[in-house]
Amino acid sequence: MILDRMTTDRSLKLGIILASTRKGRFGETVANWFEEVAREDYRFETELIDLLDYSLPWNMSKDMDSDLSLFSEKIGSSDVFVVITPEYNHGYPAYLKLAIDSLQEEWKAKPLGFVSYGGSSGGLRAVEQLRNVFAELRMTTVKDCVSFHWAHARFHNGRPTEEFRYHASAERLLNELYWWGNVLKEARKEFPQSVLRS
Ligand SMILES: Cc1cc2nc3c(=O)[nH]c(=O)nc-3n(C[C@H](O)[C@H](O)[C@H](O)COP(=O)(O)O)c2cc1C
């Protein structure tokens, strides 16, 4: 029963993807805060997947001697994801698109949520575009989202100034991810995925 499994500690592996690779990025501050919140949640085993640590082939070759094989292993072994994304010119970072497109099966039939940040829109335009992209990989993006408008002004000493409010948003996101994470993990085991072939 799924409910029995829901009482198991750290039953889901949560990959937190830090999408900004920009020099001087603010993303690290946001990711570190979110990782700390997620780590406190006994239901998840968390891992920060910083795209800056992976040199992925821009020519999209499947060169497994590159960092692609390590990246594939990290994504493939995660059950659920949170993407920490900024907004650049009403879109999401180019390197994130390369990272997404570099893999396929590793993403499939898994849930994914967002922590976004930016200026007036809080990165939400980037999030809405990413929902379309991840749908093509047969992923489920969850509704709840943590979003920081004018993000730089909303943090002090590495923490959100209105921490209670953002912590509550993060909890809602983690709850939804936990639900979908268990449902889809079970479904991946019990149902043939032939219908999900590209
Ligand atoms: C090239 C560039 C384009 C940007 N475009 C937008 C934008 O369209 N909308 C927005 O709200 N913020 C925009 N910003 C502000 C960023 O969201 C903000 O600087 C954020 O901190 C960037 O994330 P990073 O510091 O982790 O790279 C832009 C920033 C850069 C560098």
Automatic annotation (TrEMBL):
One of its GO terms (cellular component) is cytosol. This is NADPH-dependent oxidoreductase. Pfam families: FMN_red. Residues 13-149 form the NADPH-dependent FMN reductase-like domain. InterPro entries: Flavoprotein-like_sf, FMN_Rdtase-like_dom, NAD(P)H-dep_reductase. It comes from Leptospira sarikeiensis. GO terms for molecular function: FMN binding; oxidoreductase activity.
